[in-house]
Structures are given as structure tokens and as C-alpha cells.
Amino acid sequence: MIRFYFHPAPNPAKVALFLEETxxxxxxxxxxxxxxxxxxxxxxxxxxxxxxxxxxxxxxxxGKTARVFDSTAILIYLAEKTGKLLGAPEDRPELLSWLLxxxxxxxxxxxQAVHFQFSAPEGLGYAVNRYRRxxxxxxxxxxxxxxxxxxxxxxxxxxxxxSAWGWLDRAARVLKGADDxxxxxxxxxxxxxxxxxxxxxxxxxxxxxxxxxxKVNDEETQRALFPSNYPAT
Length: 233
Fold this sequence. Notes:
The protein has helices at 10-22, 41-44, 71-82, 92-118, 125-145, 159-168, 171-174, 186-196, 199-206, 219-225; strands at 2-6, 26-30, 54-57, 66-69. By secondary structure, it is an alpha+beta fold. α5 (125-145) crosses α8.
């Protein structure tokens, strides 16, 4: 059984999509990051970085319980465990390259673009410009790669496409104010639409809907999500 620690956000959404695509049995365990539950000692014992997603596999390697944190690590681990959505063996170098391109570039810059446009104090135009433009650069790199291709790696849907979908789904927030944020990147938009039309996406979007996650963005939320902005207590 997979215990899946979840909050509705782009990186946990990737794992939810993989689990729904493969039918791997799992238990969703909510972690309300707006209430600071990711900082509780019990959760930090699972992920010392205090982030979601995290999984605990009760049937890990050698039959032992194993924890995996970071969405990219989880996707690789689960794909190897199930033998699904890994693509062809000869495409493994490309798969790892694009997964880490998303993990180290497209994802973090998208996240910072959202932060500086929606959560940071006013007057930080340089940061907004920096993160939006770097996100757009990453979009363009991936868009150019997808010209004449249906999927990011090889000829089949893989965890690379799932990983990209997680953040492309938030493009309207990443590029705040854009009416159709992916339209300048037609190959990228086509990939997103292809993934987003899959039946498993509907099921993945439903994960956590029956839990009342905090939605108020008050000081408690800001301290929980951005603790390094505040003096240590």
C-alpha cells in the first residue's frame, strides 16, 4: 500500500495523476500546509524538508517500508516499481534529462513566478519580471522540443509528460493576466491538452476534494508556507 501525503498543489497533483493512471492502491493522507501541518515533528520524520508530496510504500524494496519525497523522485520510484510510464529503455537518458529540466527549471521558476505575483509585497517588479521571463524561456525550450512530437520522450506517454502537466495546469497563475497563457507555445499547449483530456486527470483532480483544506490566506498561512520570511522563534 502507498500512503500518499497530499495537499492540492502542482507537485502533489503529478503523483496523484500517476497513481490514478496506474491504479496502484493508495491511501491519501491530507497535509494542510496552510495550517503548518508540514512542520509537525511527525511529518518532518517522513520528510525532513517539510514539503509535500511524500509517499510511504509499505511494500518497498526487499519488502521493507520505504519513504520517498520530492515529486520527481516519487514519479521515478513508482514508475520503476510498477514498470509503467517509463518509456522505452533506450529513451532513459532523455527521460531523466527532461524530468530534471522540469524539476530544476520549469517547476521552480513557475513556483517563484506565482509567489512574487500573488504573495510577495508590492514593489518587487524585478523579481516578477525575472521569474516570469525564465518560466517563458523554459516554456519555449520545451515547446521547441515538442515540434513534430506527440510526447516529451519517445513515442509514448511517460512520467515526463505527467511532470510537465502538473505545472502547465497552473499556467494562468504563473503568467498572471494572460488570457491564454500557453497560446504562444502551440506544441506545449497541444501536449497539455492531450494529457489533460485523459480520464485519469479527472480522477486526479478529485483527490482531496472531500477534505476541508484551509483556503484563507492569513498570517498563519503566510508563516506556515514561508517560514524563512519570519524571525525564528
